[in-house]
Specification:
This protein has 495 residues and is of the alpha/beta class. It has 13 helices and 18 strands. Bound molecules: (2S,3S,4R,5S)-2-ethynyl-5-methylpyrrolidine-3,4-diol.
Length: 495
C-alpha cells in the first residue's frame, strides 16, 4: 500500500515537473523595450468608443488630385496619389502643381453632411501624403496649402465641419516625405545621419503642431512608416508616441507607427500587437476570428482596385458597388473590426458621382439596418452560408447577403455550454419592415428541430416582401437558453 502511494506521489511529481517545464517554454518571451506595451485590448472610454464606429470614411486629397492620374496626355495606371513617383512623370512639374491648387468647389460642410448621411462615424483625412504637401499651414515647411492660390486651412475646415456633425476625426500622416531634404529611406553615411536627425525633428514638430492646432482630433493614422531608416529609430519613435499620447490623453494610434527593437512591425517579436489596433488589413479582410487574434482592427478599402487619390479614369479596374461594400462592412463587423471606405475628391473639391451614389446607397441601407453594424461584436453563431452575424447584448443580427433560392434561411444555433440547457430563438423579426418573421418548424407548428448529430436549427421562411429584396437584409433574433426538457412547452408557448 505504502509503496503504491509513494509511486503515485512520484508520478504526480513527475507530471508536475513536466507541466512546469512546458509552461516555462511557452512563457519564454523575448525581452523587448519597444514592443507591445500592453497585452490585450485597450479598455479605456476612447477605445470603447472607437470599437462602436462600424463605418468610417477615408479621404485622400492633395495636389495629386489635380493631375488625377494623367499628365501630358499619358494615363498612369498606378495609384493616382503616387503619380510623382511613376516613371515618365516629371518631378519638377509635380512639385509646382501646388501653385495651381485652388479647389473653388470645396465645401467642408457639404462633405461632412454627406459622410453623416452615409452613416460614417469617423473620418481619416490625409493631412500629408508621401509627396510632403501639407493640407494645413505648417510652420515647418513652405510646401503647404497656405502658399497655394487657395490659401485656407483645409484640415481645420474638415475637423470643424465633421466634428459639428458628430463625426470623429483622425489625421492621416505619412512618415515618407519626398519634399524634405532630410528625408531618407535608408541612412548610409554620416551626412545621411545628420540630415535624418533634422528630418526626425521636423516630423516630431509637425505631429505636435497637428495635435496642438486641432484639439478635437481623436487619433493619428500613420502611413509610409516602412522605411529601414524609420524602423531603425524604434526607440526614438516609441518615445515620440509616448509624447504624443501625453499631449492628447486617449489618443488612438494603430500598429503602423513604429517597429519593435528587432525591426518587426505591427506585431512585435513575441507576436503581440504594437499599439492600439491592427492596421494590416488594407484592402483585405481577415478570413475569420482566428486571424484577428483577439485584437482591435480596421480595414481601409478603396472603391476601385487600388486608387486612393482622385484618378480620372476608373475604367480599367473593377469598381466596387455599394452591395460589395455592404458585404465587406458586414463581414468586418462580424469579425470585430471597423470598415472604412475611401473617397478621392477631384482637384476642384468635388466628390465624384460614383462615390456620392455609393454614399447615398450605403446610408439608405444603414438607416434601416444600422443596428446590425453599430456598437456590435461578433456573435455566438458560427459563420453560415447566408451571410454574417453580429451581436449586441442578447440580440443577434443576421445580415443575409446570400438570399437562399428556396427563400428559407436556416439558422444553426450554438450549443449551450451549460449541461441540460439549449439555445432557442425567443423572438425574430426583419429589420426591413419590422415584420415578425414566420418561423417554420419540422412539419408541425414548432420553431425548432435537431438533426441526428445533435445540432439545433431554426428555419426562417422569408415573407413575400423580403423575398423581393434585392439587397442584403437583416433578421434580428433574440436567443434564450432553456432547459432541454422544457422544449415542448416552450415551442407551444411561442407559436
Ligand atoms: C502604399 C500606400 C498608401 N497607403 C494607402 C492608405 C494609400 O495612402 C496609399 O497611397
Amino acid at each position: 500500500m505504502k509503496r503504491k502511494i509513494s509511486l503515485l506521489l512520484l508520478l504526480f511529481a513527475f507530471i508536475f515537473t513536466i507541466q512546469n517545464f512546458a509552461q516555462s517554454v511557452n512563457k519564454e518571451r523575448i525581452p523587448l523595450e519597444h514592443g507591445a506595451h500592453r497585452l490585450g485590448k485597450r479598455t479605456d472610454a476612447a477605445m470603447q468608443h472607437w470599437r462602436k464606429y462600424g463605418l468610417g470614411q477615408f479621404i485622400h486629397w492633395g495636389v495629386y488630385a489635380i493631375p488625377g492620374g494623367q499628365w501630358d496626355g499619358k494615363n498612369y495606371m498606378g495609384a493616382a496619389e503616387w503619380i510623382r513617383s511613376w516613371s515618365g512623370m516629371p518631378k519638377q512639374d509635380y512639385d509646382n502643381l501646388y501653385k495651381q491648387f485652388n479647389p473653388v468647389d470645396f465645401d467642408a460642410v457639404k462633405w461632412a453632411k454627406q459622410a453623416k448621411q452615409m452613416g460614417a462615424k469617423y473620418l481619416i483625412f490625409t493631412t500629408k501624403h508621401h509627396d510632403g504637401f501639407c493640407m494645413w499651414p505648417s510652420n515647418y515647411t513652405d510646401y503647404t496649402v497656405a502658399n497655394t492660390p487657395y490659401k485656407k486651412d483645409i484640415v481645420k475646415a474638415l475637423v470643424d465641419a465633421y466634428t459639428a456633425e458628430g463625426i470623429d476625426v483622425y489625421l492621416y500622416f505619412s512618415i515618407i516625405d519626398w519634399n524634405q531634404p532630410g528625408y531618407r529611406s535608408v541612412v548610409k553615411t554620416e551626412t545621411d545621419k545628420a540630415e535624418y536627425e533634422q528630418f526626425k525633428q521636423f516630423t516630431r514638430n509637425q505631429l505636435i503642431e497637428l495635435l496642438t492646432n486641432y484639439p478635437q482630433v481623436k487619433g493619428l493614422w500613420f502611413d509610409g512608416s516602412w522605411d529601414k531608416a524609420w524602423i531603425e529609430q524604434a526607440a526614438w519613435v516609441d518615445a515620440l508616441g509616448e509624447e504624443l499620447r501625453s499631449i492628447r490623453p486617449g489618443l488612438i494610434i494603430g500598429s503602423r507607427f513604429r517597429a519593435d527593437d528587432t525591426g518587426k512591425r505591427h506585431v512585435d517579436a513575441n507576436g503581440d500587437l504594437i499599439d492600439d489596433y491592427d492596421q494590416r488589413f488594407e484592402r483585405n479582410l481577415p478570413a475569420n476570428l482566428k486571424e484577428v487574434g483577439g485584437n482591435d482592427w480596421e480595414c481601409v478599402m478603396t472603391i476601385p482596385e487600388n486608387q486612393w487619390g482622385y484618378h480620372r479614369d476608373w475604367s480599367w479596374s473593377y469598381v466596387k458597388t455599394s452591395d460589395d461594400l455592404i458585404e465587406m462592412m458586414a463581414k468586418t463587423r462580424s469579425l470585430d473590426g471597423n470598415f472604412v471606405i475611401n473617397f478621392g475628391p477631384d482637384g476642384k473639391g468635388n466628390i465624384r458621382k460614383e462615390e456620392s451614389d455609393i454614399a447615398k446607397s450605403i446610408g439608405k441601407w444603414l438607416s434601416i439596418n444600422g443596428n446590425a453594424v453599430y456598437d456590435v461584436q461578433h456573435s455566438l453563431l458560427e459563420k453560415q452560408d447566408w451571410g454574417y452575424s453580429t451581436q449586441k447584448d442578447h440580440k443577434i443580427y443576421l445580415t443575409v447577403f446570400n438570399k437562399p433560392a428556396n427563400n428559407l434561411v436556416r439558422v444553426k444555433l450554438p450549443k449551450s455550454k451549460t449541461e441540460g440547457m439549449i439555445y432557442v430563438i425567443g423572438k425574430a423579426q426583419f429589420l426591413l419592415n419590422q415584420q415578425p418573421a414566420r418561423i417554420k418548424g419540422n412539419g408541425k407548428p414548432a420553431t425548432y428541430f435537431r438533426d441526428k448529430f445533435g445540432n439545433s436549427y431554426y428555419d426562417i421562411i422569408l415573407p413575400k416582401a423580403v423575398q423581393k429584396c434585392t439587397q442584403a437584409f437583416v433578421i434580428e433574433l433574440e436567443l434564450k437558453e432553456i432547459d432541454k426538457k422544457d422544449l415542448d412547452n416552450y415551442q407551444q408557448a411561442i407559436i
